[in-house]
Amino acid sequence: MRRYVIPLMCLCFVTWPLFLLLSTHTGSNDATGLVEELTWAVRLDPSHGSGRREELDALAEVLSHAVGLENRGVIGELKDHYLFAHIGHGQSKENTRRKVHAIFTQHDSVRWFSEQKLLKRSKRSLHFNDPKYPQQWHLHNSRSPGMDINVTGVWERNVTGRGVTVVVVDDGVQYTIQDIQPNYSPEGSYDLNSNDPDPMPRPDGYSDNHHGTRCAGEIAAVPNNSFCAVGVAYGSRIAGIRVLDGPLTDSMEAIAFNKHYQINDIYSCSWGPDDDGKTVDGPHQLGKAALQHGVIAGRKGFGSIFVVASGNGGQYDDNCNYDGYANSIYTVTIGAVNEAGEMPFYAEECASMLAVTFSSGDKQMRSIVTSDWDLQKGTGCTEGHTGTSAAAPIAAGMVALMLQVRPCLTWRDVQHIIVFTATKYEDHQAAWKTNGAGFNHSHQHGFGLLNAWRLTNAAKVWESVPYLASYVSPVLKENKNIPLVPHVLELSWNVTTADLLLSGMRTLEHVGVTVSITHPRRGNLQIQLFCPSGMSSLIGATRKLDADPNGFTEWTFSTVRCWGENAEGAYRILVTDVGEETLKRGVFQTWQLTLYGSSWTPEDVAERRRLVEESQGGQFLNDNFSLPCPPGLEISEQDSYTITNNTLRTLMLLGCFAVFWSLYYTVELYLSRISSSSDLDLSCEGSSCILSRRQGSSGPRQLEAGLETESLPLCGSNDVAVDYEEDEDNVGHVALYRHQPSTTQFRLMVENRPKPQNNAIFDLQDNEDTVRHDTRDGDTNLNEYG
Ligand SMILES: [Ca+2]
Ligand SMILES: [Ca+2]
Ligand SMILES: [Ca+2]
Ligand SMILES: [Ca+2]
């Protein structure tokens, strides 16, 4: 079947320009419907006569009569400037224009003139009748100006998330409440706890299955319905995936991450492993695979956007580098700050934090006002949504605004734009450090506060980053003792120009370090990573409560702090033990460095930063400006067009051509198979190898994730044919045929061999489906934040 990809691609290439043509013809929305009065602004020569006002007034009067227009007098305070209007109905507009133009051009006293055009301006003040809107300080903060997401100007330009669907992966969404129902997307929703399409939350003994509904309201609560609140992206559609109300397995998580992923654009996840300060956990094999698959295949290939909360374990010394969802390069990791911009007691810090946005603080601070369920004790509206749970959906809403203005942003574009636009601000807890590319990052606040205005303006002018390039070092075997502080174990690995040549990587995005360490008390370990620029990341923070005696087994820490820096050079890690002498020394066994980035040079990064800053005046944030999008994205409902008979005929013809071509190709393939089966003996003589590559439908975006099919160095001296393909889980399978000298047959020697590690990000060797539980069920390793 894969063989038919070529004719179908031909069809796509042939039809795409046609679609483009049709869509541009229907894109006009210039019908204002207003009756236009013809008016001209005229500047008279101030040196006329004595130049006094009365003389100019008289001159204007004479001129207006000569040209047959009404003199409306001086324009505001601009002396010498007069407004003339056409009041007659006899002549056509064109004739009037011609006559006026001729007279004004020749008249000695006219210095300059211009016909007045209708200007398109939108009102700057928004009025919402929602009773709780005045309390939604995170949207517009009048008490502490500036401490909000700066979104109202974006809404005023009709950017509200229109055409974008956000899904809340949580304990259900009560889509029947007034503020959710009009924006609810049943197509994007599902219930994995009860295995049905309806994600309605279940009233339980504690009345706490309101969590998903609260998150949904933050994103898409309906404005101007005289009820409760307003969502960040109130023009978007909102779906719910119910998965947290019962036992959760790796496979359920994997299904949730890819559920309806051509409908759902953004997955908002306000939950994660236990925030008890002693857990090290993240997505397991299937969950990881689903996250990766989502960014490759979701959203028509532009990649699902996964927004995750950084966690609520601050009071337990927890750190989001011990949370695999936060560490994942596929997730947008979002932390919380309170109304004063400070890190609240519950917030966690880590090197993989991308940015922060607002949420609750201690008792004196206001919490987030949003929708609520109205089951049990709920009223449909709450002033008490809290934690990083409340921050992640606000970020998801802002991403929806970005995707409205530029639907073809890839998952990496979204992360880049956050890095480029998040704002640093003064806070006594935030230790800011400027990296080699000029970006400021703090482990507490990521790259800074998310700002809806900056995000959408940058999104509007953003052209996609080059495809994802990666580099993976060998597994470096160290087996060295870890000394007690102040001594450190220092390890380093040099990445050379030649190492990066293959992938073309020049600048960094994420940097990952996978370690295996034995230690009698894991929380005593501290690990720092230094990029070639000297930028440091505390990837392994000490944790007082983590007494785990098993150390780390291939745990991957990640940092975003070297974003935009040159990838080449020496990477160092410094490991130390802050514990007591009495404990046995830990052993640093192995580590492996993984770099992600692109072919952008440091100059490209600097140039893009300049472009982003230039876009911030709002001059591009209107309907008249749009960059072209590459093929792949389906045309949204708003921009749909009517198919005419001619279009249908053309498509029919192209379809027939494709069918004919497919048949021809099949016959040719069949004939070549027959002939090649007799040729095979000849071509496999000696020790030469035939390497067959079936790349299937791998396009540029499959390349992006580093999944390009590689030539496999598997041929032994007697091996004669190798066949390689990937199954739907992206696991490579190799069939190796060996020549049997006694016969003329080939024997199948190896099968189901996983793809080699040097380019794969992970593989699925262990299909164990681990059962995990929600916090409230006692035996916890996964919980909601908030
Ligand atoms: Ca249900
Ligand atoms: Ca409302
Ligand atoms: Ca945590
Ligand atoms: Ca992440």
TrEMBL record:
<dbReference type="Pfam" id="PF00082">
    <property type="entry name" value="Peptidase_S8"/>
</dbReference>
<comment type="similarity">
    <text>Belongs to the peptidase S8 family.</text>
</comment>
<keyword id="KW-0325">Glycoprotein</keyword>
<keyword id="KW-0378">Hydrolase</keyword>
<dbReference type="Pfam" id="PF16470">
    <property type="entry name" value="S8_pro-domain"/>
</dbReference>
<feature type="active site" description="Charge relay system">
    <location>
        <position position="211"/>
    </location>
</feature>
<feature type="compositionally biased region" description="Basic and acidic residues">
    <location>
        <begin position="769"/>
        <end position="779"/>
    </location>
</feature>
<protein>
    <recommendedName>
        <fullName>P/Homo B domain-containing protein</fullName>
    </recommendedName>
</protein>
<keyword id="KW-1133">Transmembrane helix</keyword>
<keyword id="KW-0645">Protease</keyword>
<dbReference type="GO" id="GO:0000139">
    <property type="term" value="C:Golgi membrane"/>
</dbReference>
<keyword id="KW-0865">Zymogen</keyword>
<feature type="signal peptide">
    <location>
        <begin position="1"/>
        <end position="26"/>
    </location>
</feature>
<dbReference type="InterPro" id="IPR023828">
    <property type="entry name" value="Peptidase_S8_Ser-AS"/>
</dbReference>
<dbReference type="InterPro" id="IPR036852">
    <property type="entry name" value="Peptidase_S8/S53_dom_sf"/>
</dbReference>
<dbReference type="GO" id="GO:0005802">
    <property type="term" value="C:trans-Golgi network"/>
</dbReference>
<dbReference type="Pfam" id="PF01483">
    <property type="entry name" value="P_proprotein"/>
</dbReference>
<dbReference type="InterPro" id="IPR022398">
    <property type="entry name" value="Peptidase_S8_His-AS"/>
</dbReference>
<dbReference type="InterPro" id="IPR034182">
    <property type="entry name" value="Kexin/furin"/>
</dbReference>
<feature type="region of interest" description="Disordered">
    <location>
        <begin position="765"/>
        <end position="786"/>
    </location>
</feature>
<feature type="active site" description="Charge relay system">
    <location>
        <position position="389"/>
    </location>
</feature>
<dbReference type="InterPro" id="IPR008979">
    <property type="entry name" value="Galactose-bd-like_sf"/>
</dbReference>
<dbReference type="InterPro" id="IPR000209">
    <property type="entry name" value="Peptidase_S8/S53_dom"/>
</dbReference>
<keyword id="KW-0732">Signal</keyword>
<dbReference type="InterPro" id="IPR038466">
    <property type="entry name" value="S8_pro-domain_sf"/>
</dbReference>
<dbReference type="GO" id="GO:0016485">
    <property type="term" value="P:protein processing"/>
</dbReference>
<feature type="domain" description="P/Homo B">
    <location>
        <begin position="464"/>
        <end position="601"/>
    </location>
</feature>
<dbReference type="InterPro" id="IPR032815">
    <property type="entry name" value="S8_pro-domain"/>
</dbReference>
<dbReference type="GO" id="GO:0004252">
    <property type="term" value="F:serine-type endopeptidase activity"/>
</dbReference>
<dbReference type="InterPro" id="IPR002884">
    <property type="entry name" value="P_dom"/>
</dbReference>
<feature type="active site" description="Charge relay system">
    <location>
        <position position="170"/>
    </location>
</feature>
<keyword id="KW-0812">Transmembrane</keyword>
<feature type="region of interest" description="Disordered">
    <location>
        <begin position="181"/>
        <end position="204"/>
    </location>
</feature>
<feature type="compositionally biased region" description="Polar residues">
    <location>
        <begin position="181"/>
        <end position="196"/>
    </location>
</feature>
<keyword id="KW-0720">Serine protease</keyword>
<keyword id="KW-0165">Cleavage on pair of basic residues</keyword>
<dbReference type="InterPro" id="IPR015500">
    <property type="entry name" value="Peptidase_S8_subtilisin-rel"/>
</dbReference>
<keyword id="KW-0472">Membrane</keyword>
